[in-house]
Structure formats: C-alpha cells, structure tokens
C-alpha cells in the first residue's frame, strides 16, 4: 500500500498575513501555521507591499539593518514558491467594482479582486486570509470565504 499524497489547497494570503511570516507580532504563529499547510496565492503587489512594511519598520527602529537584510533574503527566496496574480486592466476594473460595492482601500481592493479572479479562472473556492478587519468585512461583502488571524478572529 502506497502512502497517500497530501493535497495542499490554495489559500489566498493578504500582505497583512505574509508580513507575519517574517516578523513576530500578534497572529504570527497562526499565520506561519497556515502558510506551512497551504499553497500561497496572492496579488503581484504583495512583495512590494511587504517591502514597504519592512522598510517602515526599519526606519522606525523596529528592525535592525541586519534583520531587514535577512528578511529581504528570505522574502526573495520564498517568492519562487508563490502564485501571484498579475495586475492588468481586467483586474483593475474588478478592483474598481470592489471599491464601489465595499468601500475599501485601493490595495485591499486589488487583493480581493485577485482572489475573485483566481477563483473564477480555476472554478474553485479559495479561502481568503487577512489580518485586516476592514478588508475582512469587504471580502465578506464580495462573497469570499474569509479567515481572520486577528485577535478578534471571527
């Protein structure tokens, strides 16, 4: 009898969750657990958003230059294993529709639109994981199956 292969499902991770993979903060343990168990799907803007978040922390003195460099090295290595949804005119149009319906910030709308586009392309439901409460609400409004890793997980 051969061992059964574990099917690892796609899960859409917002940048608010990805950042927790590299720094310790509330929700980091849960984020790392989910990231280990699932195939990572996100928008092509996620690495840029993460770089911005880490740069702000370095500038604020929350990350040393050494830690920042180590995080950037790990981030670059990890990117090769991620499925990133390309930003194009169609995705931007979908993000506009998300904003009109859910009144969410631009980058959050791009993440929600990316998850919706991926689901439509593959014809399957993909959980959407976020640590941002406003984005959680907007993703719910758009019909996504949402998981939160915040302290007030729903």
In words, what does this structure look like?
With about 150 residues, the chain is α/β, with parallel strands linked by helices. It has a single domain, classed as 3-Layer(aba) Sandwich (Rossmann fold), CATH 3.40.50.1010. It is built from 7 helices and 5 strands; from the N terminus they run βααβααβααβαβ. A 5-stranded parallel beta sheet has the order 3-2-1-4-5, with helices on both faces. Helix 7 links the parallel strand 4 and strand 5. Helix 1 crosses helix 2 and helix 3 runs antiparallel to helix 4. It is globular, with a radius of gyration of 16 Å. About 30% of the residues are buried. The N terminus is likely disordered.
Say which CATH homologous superfamily is assigned.
5'-nuclease
Radius of gyration: 16 Å
CATH class: Alpha Beta
Strand adjacency order, main sheet: 3-2-1-4-5
* Computed structural class: alpha/beta
Overall domain count: 1
| Low confidence ranges | 1-7
The count of DSSP E runs of length 2 or more, i.e. the number of strands, is 5
Major sheet attributes: 5 strands, parallel
User: Do you know the CATH architecture?
Assistant: 3-Layer(aba) Sandwich
Percent strand: 5-15%
**Principal-axis shape:** globular
- How large is the count of helical segments? 7
CATH topology: Rossmann fold
Distance between the termini: 41 Å
Q: State the helical fraction.
A: 55-70%
Mean pLDDT: 91
Order of helices and strands: EHHEHHEHHEHE
